[in-house]
């Protein structure tokens, strides 16, 4: 009986450790660049209907900096939202989304990303 319990625990551990997707698993890789003078938050999704409860510091891009990102284009498009850091830091994220309090929203196809040289660039203009 103990032998089977050990096997079950090993199987559960392996499942949890393997279950998190990695940027290296995605088919298409690109960069999100912040060419503004202020830090921004970004959020990217393939499904327009899902938003997290909040954005943590992993979603911040410093001025004149970039972050790697990736997608599989499972639904044919990706969406990228750019938010003012002060807005995210001082509001409930659900309210930010419900009131369209974003600086810019990109709706991109694979062709769009190729034309953009695999970079989504935000500037203040």
Automatic annotation (TrEMBL):
Residues 1-19 form the signal peptide. It comes from the Bacteria. Keywords: Signal. This is Lipoprotein. It comes from Paenimyroides baculatum. The lineage of its organism: Bacteria, Pseudomonadati, Bacteroidota, Flavobacteriia, Flavobacteriales.
């Amino acid at each position: 009986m103990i032998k089977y319990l050990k096997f079950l625990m090993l199987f559960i551990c392996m499942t949890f450790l393997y279950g998190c997707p990695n940027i290296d698993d995605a088919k298409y890789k690109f960069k999100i660049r912040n060419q503004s003078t202020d830090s921004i938050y970004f959020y990217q999704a393939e499904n327009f209907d899902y938003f997290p409860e909040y954005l943590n510091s992993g979603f911040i891009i410093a001025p004149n900096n970039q972050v790697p990102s990736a997608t599989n284009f499972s639904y044919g498009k990706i969406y990228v939202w750019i938010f003012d850091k002060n807005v995210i830091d001082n509001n409930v994220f659900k309210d930010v989304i419900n009131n369209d309090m974003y600086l810019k929203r990109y709706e991109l196809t694979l062709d769009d990303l190729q034309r953009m040289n695999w970079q989504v660039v935000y500037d203040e203009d």
